[in-house]
Design goal:
The complex is a heterodimer of chains A (114) and B (115). With 114 residues, chain A is mostly beta strands. Chain A is 0% helix and 50% strand. Chain A has no helices and 11 strands. In chain A, strands 2, 4, 5, 6, 9, 10 and 11 form a 7-stranded mixed sheet that branches. Helix content of chain B is 0%, strand content 53%. Chain B has no helices and 12 strands. The N and C termini of chain B lie far apart (41 Å). The chains are: A mainly beta (114), B mainly beta (115). The interface between A and B is medium-sized, with 31 and 25 residues.
């Protein structure tokens, strides 16, 4: 089975633009989470979606939004990009939510904001 | 809010030797999960080992084992018979019992394996 897949792998944007990142979970997984990893730091939680509903939100501004589709894939949108949004964005999936399932990660999307 | 601290920014080990990576955390919760993830240069976060806080027995996965000290809020990772492929960033992470899938990560420890 394919793992968690993210697209694109790399992206370059300029300040003020908008970006959409995509994630396909492992087949059968219904929960998707998004993390931001700034260079030299551990990942920080942005969102979790389960069965198309938001189940958790981290301490990120409203410029960050996400959604989950009926096939459980997900998109992360970031508006009005800032230089500080440059980071690796990781997607993770799990079978269910809140029952101790293992989170499995994709290889991420590297976003550079110039 | 929970916090995770990894006090060793970098560690090195000789191939075939044993190394221990340290992690401490702060929480007021009694039930939770703890994890060690490995991030090689490919950037993918790979789950190494998981520990449920209610279990007194330390988790083990092949060459990887943990020393979980709940009262001390300590969760160290021991890698035995180190291999060149173990070289990576290692992150300790905390997750609450129930609720969202939010993981709280430490800043990581860069492990170098010398031949």
């Amino acid at each position: 089975d394919a793992g968690v897949t993210q697209s694109p792998t790399h992206l370059i944007k300029t300040r003020g633009q908008q970006v959409t990142l995509r994630c396909s979970p492992i087949s059968g997984h219904k929960s998707v989470s998004w993390y931001q990893q700034v260079l030299g730091q551990g990942p920080q939680f942005i969102f979790q979606y389960y069965e198309k509903e938001e189940r958790g939100r981290g301490n990120f501004p409203d410029r960050f939004s996400a959604r989950q589709f009926p096939n459980y894939s997900s998109e992360l949108n970031v508006n009005a990009l800032l230089l500080g949004d440059s980071a690796l964005y990781l997607c993770a999936s799990s079978l269910a939510s809140g029952v101790g399932e293992k989170l499995l990660f994709g290889s991420g999307t590297q976003l550079s904001v110039l | 809010a929970q916090t995770v601290t990894q006090s060793q920014p970098e560690m090195s080990v000789q191939e075939a030797e044993t190394v221990t990576l340290s992690c401490t955390y702060d929480t007021s919760e009694s039930d939770y999960y703890l994890f060690w993830y490995k991030q090689p240069p490919s950037r993918q976060m790979i789950l190494v080992i998981r520990q449920e806080a209610y279990k007194q027995q330390n988790a083990t996965e092949n060459r990887f084992s943990v020393n979980f000290q709940k009262a001390a809020k300590s969760f160290s990772l021991k890698i035995s018979d180190s291999q060149l492929g173990d070289a990576a960033m290692y992150f300790c992470a905390y997750r609450s019992w129930g609720g969202s899938e939010k993981l709280v990560f430490g800043k990581g420890t860069k492990l170098t394996v010398n031949p």
